[in-house]
């Protein structure tokens, strides 16, 4: 019923054209089609949900020492293969749970709330087990950890794709808020790991803080999502004095949100062919940006060591990798994504965009010939100084943030308005596919050095 109402409204106003046409007026793209957003509350809500879409997974990664402690019975380091096993498990799960067809079989409200509840339940159970002695059932705990990581990873991807899908009904600045929020989630987890290295003496205390933070933030995301339709209804009364074209966009957003509140499951799958016809170039750009990024970060970049490691200084031994690889990358990535709020160049139809995306391939050999250790096949190190990985990580992060965000926010705007949400989900699928393929190639890349 909701889709019919929206379609009827579009038929009356003739509003079936793409949100971005090839003949674009001058001015920042993010400034067009903007409904009233008092105090930027809608932007803040989507920014917080962007953080929440990746923070749980980042928390699992950040608490690596806790998992090693639990799985080794608190006496000796656990086999590092455990990290690889649950990472591969989660990635296999992702591939089966982020396809566009699955995302379209249920309403966005059901997908978002269900995925958040799954994450919340998993983290509440995980938090409760932090101080419990699991020495007598380590294998059962290991199996439960595998299942937990798979559930959190899959639910996070469903949540992320669904939120990005509904952002297609909003101005582009809202899509940019989600993507910037995701980068902020990575930055916060990187900061937490560094603070943990400097201040914490008990891995279980650190893990408890990480998991409680994830619990609270997941609850915040649930509250924010439930609050979102109410804010949109209140903004409808403020949009009466706006121009007629702006009123049409605002009314469509409010109609959509009111529909998602009462919408149950939907069995129909939107037509993918017209969506892919309009977005395949942008989707390919998203795929390749994240393919290159995940091939380098973190598998390759985190293996680059300081040339002064033997000096024994804390910078070279303890903080070099967390600072230069994880924190610096996430900060640069956040900055690149944030720039797209004010600058959208090149445009969605420009040939320069694919060229810039492909040019990032040059970053792969640059990282390969830094001081990555251990080396078995390529013994030459051309970029030996510690400054080189710092510069290269900055380039990788900024280009990932900027060139990854542009096609993501363009995608839902180059299709007819009624296809904006499924187009957003399709773009999210391209992103996930790039991460999957890049992860596989990173294993081969590391073994080739």
Automatic annotation (TrEMBL):
GO cellular component terms given for this protein: Golgi apparatus; plasma membrane
Lipid bilayer topology: Multi-pass membrane protein
Transmembrane region(s): 41-61, 112-130, 142-165, 177-195, 207-228, 280-300, 382-403, 423-446
MF terms (GO), sorted A to Z: nucleoside transmembrane transporter activity
Compartment annotation: Membrane
InterPro entries in the cross-refs: Eqnu_transpt
Nucleotide-binding found in the keyword field: no
UniProtKB keywords: Membrane, Transmembrane, Transmembrane helix, Transport
Keyword Transmembrane applies: yes
Major site of localization recorded for this protein: membrane
Stretches for region Disordered: 1-23
One Pfam family here: Nucleoside_tran
Family the UniProt entry places it in: Belongs to the SLC29A/ENT transporter (TC 2.A.57) family.
PANTHER family for the chain: EQUILIBRATIVE NUCLEOSIDE TRANSPORTER, EQUILIBRATIVE NUCLEOSIDE TRANSPORTER 3
The name this protein goes by in its record: Equilibrative nucleoside transporter 3-like
């Amino acid at each position: 019923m909701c889709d019919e109402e929206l379609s009827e409204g579009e038929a009356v106003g003739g509003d079936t054209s793409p949100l971005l046409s090839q003949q674009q007026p001058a001015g920042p793209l993010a400034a067009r089609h903007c409904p009233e957003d008092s105090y930027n509350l809608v932007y803040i809500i989507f920014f917080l949900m962007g953080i929440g879409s990746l923070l749980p997974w980042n928390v699992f990664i950040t608490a690596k020492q806790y998992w090693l402690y639990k799985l080794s019975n608190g006496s000796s380091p656990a086999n590092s293969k455990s990290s690889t096993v649950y990472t591969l498990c989660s990635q296999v799960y992702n591939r089966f749970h982020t396809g566009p067809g699955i995302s379209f079989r249920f309403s966005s409200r059901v997908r978002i709330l269900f995925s958040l509840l799954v994450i919340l339940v998993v983290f509440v159970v995980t938090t409760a087990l932090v101080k419990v002695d699991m020495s007598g059932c380590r294998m059962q705990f290991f199996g439960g950890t595998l299942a937990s990581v798979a559930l959190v990873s899959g639910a996070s991807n469903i949540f992320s794709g669904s939120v990005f899908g509904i952002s297609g009904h909003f101005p582009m600045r809202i899509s940019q808020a989600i993507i910037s929020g995701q980068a902020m989630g990575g930055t916060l987890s990187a900061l937490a790991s560094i603070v943990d290295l400097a201040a914490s003496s008990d891995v279980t205390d650190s893990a408890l803080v990480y998991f409680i933070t994830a619990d609270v933030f997941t609850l915040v995301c649930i509250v924010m999502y439930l609050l979102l339709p109410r804010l949109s209804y209140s903004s409808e009364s403020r949009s009466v004095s706006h121009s007629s074209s702006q009123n049409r966009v605002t009314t469509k957003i409010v109609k959509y949100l009111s529909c998602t509140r009462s919408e149950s499951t939907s069995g129909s799958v939107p037509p993918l062919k017209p969506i892919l016809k309009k977005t395949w170039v942008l989707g390919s750009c998203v795929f390749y940006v994240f393919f290159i990024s995940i091939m380098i970060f973190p598998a390759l970049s985190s293996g680059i060591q300081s040339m002064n490691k033997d000096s024994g200084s804390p910078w070279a031994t303890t903080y070099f990798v967390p600072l230069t690889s994880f924190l610096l990358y996430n900060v640069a990535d956040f900055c690149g994504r944030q720039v797209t709020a004010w600058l959208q160049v090149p445009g969605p139809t420009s040939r320069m965009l694919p060229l810039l995306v492909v040019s990032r391939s040059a970053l792969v050999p640059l990282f390969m010939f830094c001081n990555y250790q251990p080396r078995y096949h390529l013994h030459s190190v051309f970029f030996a100084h510690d400054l080189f990985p710092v510069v290269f990580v900055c380039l990788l992060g900024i280009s990932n943030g900027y060139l990854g965000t542009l096609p993501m926010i363009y995608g839902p705007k180059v299709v007819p308005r009624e296809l904006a949400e499924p187009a957003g989900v399709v773009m999210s699928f391209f992103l996930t596919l790039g991460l999957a393929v890049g992860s596989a190639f990173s294993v081969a890349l590391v073994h080739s050095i």
